[in-house]
């Protein structure tokens, strides 16, 4: 055999041994690779319901990436492709995590690469039973609202809004991104209920039984967004389940539907203006819930009552205007028509209004003596949230 033939054979053999780069593998052309040949695995970043995310350094480029590793035992190829394709499609938005055009499979898992968020997820930034500062919460909310508005404009529903799915890039919260599109579906898709309920699940999904058909709607994200906002500002969940058997939920719904004037104690730290927004977001009827754009109208308002203690068991001290709304509602519910000039009433009739409110409160509690004591539960365990 002459020398040139030997060299060609060696070249061919070498070529076969050279591992192909993950950077030339996409979901349509999924290469089977060994993860450790291409990435130095630095640490585990987190775990979710279906898989784990690790920090890896690409040996070819030196870049650090977050690799989402989904075991084939938990996720089918079609499901993996859907999550990867949606994540990649949504990437251009500045508040959605960047997904690189890199996807491959190993013997046991499907893998794709995303940008690495050095500060981690929002869950760890919410101090239990305390929450975050109003300023930081607004900063995060503004960015998540923008990401959700973008998704909803594309008729996509995230379906898993919670702090674990929000990534933080700096300690000032100036760069915050939404991620985890594993549950994302097109608005209007009919699916079967498979998962149990978590505190972020809207009432219409909570009440569906396992395997019942449910229609995916952007209003589900609005609800979860409202619960997320409450968690961020208090460090607690408003309830365990959005079901009337849950006393905290039931008490809130009575207030939300104006069946009761009593604002449950865990909501009393918020201003009437924020409560107005909560009333629109956390409407038990999905079709009546506001759209994500509505939230932006409230970002310049004050959200937390200046010197009010959340443990205060006094009656709600909402503004005169809100009391008027409540009062007129109650009177109307009792068949009494009211045509009040709010501005005039505020200045001239405060005394009389206070007497009427006191009378109604006494009447209310004599009719409904069961007062719910709000010893609010604290969840410090991340697993309880998922
Ligand atoms: N790009 C990333 N940078 C830093 N941490 C991440 C990143 N992606 C995910 N994580 C961490 O891993 C956890 C699980 O990731 P996620 O994609 O939500 O998986 P699952 O679909 O299983 O819930 C997240 O809650 C977060 O703590
Ligand atoms: Mg997740």
Q: How would you portray this structure in words?
A:
The structure is a single chain. This protein has 13 helices and 13 strands. The chain is α+β, with helices and mostly antiparallel strands and 386 residues long. It has 3 domains: 18-114, Phosphorylase Kinase, domain 1; 120-306, Transferase(Phosphotransferase), domain 1, CATH 1.10.510; 313-376, no CATH class. It has a 6-stranded mixed β-sheet with strand order 1-5-6-4-3-2. Helix 10 packs across helix 12. The termini are far apart. Adenosine-5'-diphosphate is lined by residues 45-51, 53, 66, 68, 97, 114-117, 120-121, 164-165, 167, 179-180, 182. Residues 48, 164-165, 180 line the site of magnesium ion (MG). It comes from Pinctada imbricata (Atlantic pearl-oyster). This is Protein kinase domain-containing protein. Residues 39-304 form the Protein kinase domain. ATP binds at residue 68.
Topology:
Elements: H1 3-17, E1 31-32, H2 35-38, E2 39-47, E3 52-58, E4 64-71, H3 77-90, E5 99-105, E6 109-114, E7 120-121, H4 134-153, E8 156-157, E9 166-168, E10 176-178, E11 185-186, E12 190-192, H5 203-206, E13 213-215, H6 218-234, H7 247-256, H8 272-281, H9 292-296, H10 320-333, H11 342-348, H12 350-367, H13 382-385
Parallel strand pairs: 1-5
Antiparallel strand pairs: 2-3, 3-4, 4-6, 5-6, 7-9, 8-11, 9-10, 12-13
The protein binds adenosine-5'-diphosphate (ADP) and magnesium ion (MG).
Give a nutshell description of this structure.
This protein is of the alpha+beta class and 386 residues long. It contains 13 helices and 13 strands.
